[in-house]
Amino acid sequence: MLRKLTLIAAALTLVAGPALAAGTAKHPYDIAFSFEGPFGKFDQGQLQRGYKVYREVCAACHSMKLLSFRNLGDKGGPFYDAKYKNPNDNPYVKALAAELEVPDIDTETGDAVTRPALPADRFPSPYKNDYAARAGNGGALPPDLSVIAKGREGGPEYLASYLLGYEAPPKGLTVPTGQYYNTYFPGDVSAGWAGDKHTPPPGGFVAMGPQLEDDKVTFDDGTKSTARQQAEDVAAFMMWAAEPKMEERKEAGFAVIIYLVLFAGLLYASYRRVWRNESH
Amino acid sequence: MSGHSTYEPKPGFSRWLDQRLPITRLVWDSFVDYPTPRNLNYWYTFGGILSLCLGIQIVSGIVLSMHYTASAGEAFASVEHIMRDVNYGWLLRYTHANGASMFFIAVYLHMFRGLYYGSYKPPREVLWILGCVIYLLMMATAFMGYVLPWGQMSFHGAVVITNIIGAIPVVGGPILTWLQGGFAVDNATLNRFFSLHYLLPFMIAGVVVLHVWALHVVGQNNPTGIDPKSKADTLPFTPYATVKDGFAMSVFLILFAVFVFYMPNALGHADNYIEANPLVTPAHIVPEWYFLPFYAILRAVPDKVMGVVAMFGAIGVLFALPWLDTSKVRSMRYRPMAKLYFVILVVACIILGFCGAKLPDDQVIPGLETFKILESDLNSFVWLSRLATLYYFAYFLVVMPLLGLLETPLETPETIASPALSHPAAMPAGAMAAPEKKG
Question: Which top CATH class is B20-281?
Answer without folding.
Answer: mainly alpha
